[in-house]
Amino acid sequence: MMKNMELRKINKNDAKAQWEYTTSLPSDENGLTNPYNGVSYDDYINKVLPTLISYEHPVNMPDWFVPETYYYLWDEDRLIGEFRIRNHLTEALKNGAGHIGYSIKKDERGKGYGTEGLKLTLLEARKIIPEDEIYLRVNKDNIASQKVMQKNGGKIVGEDEEHFFVRIPKHFDCGMEKDNYWFRYRTGAIIVRDNKMLFVKSKFGDYYYMIGGGVHLGEDSKSCIERETFEETGVKCTARRIAIICENFFYGVDGAIDGKECHELEYYYLMDTSEDALFETLTDDGEKLEWVSLDELSNNDIRPAFLKMKLKGVIEGGPLIHIINDERNK
Fold first, then answer.
1. Which of 29, 106, 152, 173 is deepest in the core (most CB within 10 A)?
2. Which of 137-146, 211-220, 249-258 has the lowest average pLDDT?
3. What sign for the dihedral angle of Cα 236, 175, 183, 180?
């Protein structure tokens, strides 16, 4: 029974348990290679351990070498498994082993340790890797590891003769889907300059919507809108205050939410930026960024529609507004 799970970076204090695990690990099992099978304790202490620790910050290694960090999964005083994170990807790794490799002790398999260990490893990987997705590879005959990856959000995106290639999002938005219902916690940016406001022009129709996006798990709304604004416009803006809180209900049109009954909780922030900031003309998703005159809001298709009537007031210093906007029966 799992009790007190912990992921520890490779270290000298745990050398004996790490050696016992490493020396007993097969040379190649399910695609995870181990050149130290059968190594003596003296060689592990004097050669192998310093080498594995150095892989995180390698010195005098060939250009193709990718930094790699070793972690061990512990349940109280028992070492359960080994997890390796490659700190970034080469083209060979993108089309091969990916970011993470792992193994679990044979007598501890089938108890949920793989799922929990990968969950903890993903938390570390998200702090390290620059890529937008976490890449993994699994043998087609390794059903247990396929289930471990799927339970951690993994999706199969390709295959070769022997392997499936799996991707796990680097970040998860605060949202969910069930049957035909779709929910998301979102932020929006109110960016004004010269009596005009910056909007995204939808690629699915002739309408505008707010710059912004989904809040990630573990992220606060202020950090989210500052991150999203930079990603979409190329400009670092500062969130001044929340201006509008909206509970938004509508039927999705086009894209991934087409035909779904949608529910969004939205925080709209007034944003500050320098007067000479140069905004991009396209978002990171390739949609147009356009300035719309505040005096012409009512003459444009802006969604949610209530914004046409409420934006000007909060921009001019009005108080925080809470809106329940239900467009399902319109």
1. 152
2. 249-258
3. positive
What pLDDT is stored for residue 288 in this prediction? Answer: 95
- Superfamily, domain 5-169: Gcn5-related N-acetyltransferase (GNAT) (3.40.630.30)
Residue 265 to residue 139: CA distance in whole angstroms? 41
Predicted confidence (pLDDT) per residue in 13-29, tens digit: 999 999 999 999 888 88
Residue 145, classed as helix, strand or coil, is helix
Please, are residues 279 and 193 in contact by the beta-carbon 8 Å criterion?
A: no
Distance of CA 245 to the CA centre of its chain: 25
Would you list the domain boundaries of the chain?
Answer: 5-169, 175-326
Concatenated DSSP letters for 240-251? EEEEEEEEEEEE
**What's the CATH number for 175-326?**
3.90.79.10
How far apart are the C-alpha atoms of 222 and 127, rounded to whole Å?
A: 20
Answer for the pair 219, 172: CB distance below 8 angstroms, yes or no.
no
Q: State residue 1's pLDDT score.
A: 61
Question: Beta-carbon neighbour count of residue 83 at 10 Å?
Answer: 23
pLDDT confidence of residue 2: 65
- Range 185-198 burial, b when 16+ CB lie within 10 A, else e: bbbbbbbbeeeebb
Supply 60's token pair.
């005098």
Under a CB-based contact definition with an 8 Å cutoff, are residues 297 and 305 in contact? no
Q: How far, CA to CA in Å, does 278 sit from each of 10, 201, 214? A: 46, 18, 24
Average pLDDT of 54-65?
91
Helix (H, G, I), strand (E, B) or coil at 155: strand
What confidence category does residue 63 fall into, taking pLDDT thresholds of 50, 70 and 90?
confident
DSSP letter at 84 equals E
As beta bridge partners, residue 261 has: 181, 251
DSSP states of 93-139: HHTTTBSEEEEE-GGGTTSSHHHHHHHHHHHHHHHH--SSEEEEEEE
Percent of the chain with pLDDT over 90: 82
In the numeric block, the tokens 């809470």 are attached to 322
293's tokens: 């005159």
Instruction: Return the DSSP state at 140.
Output: T
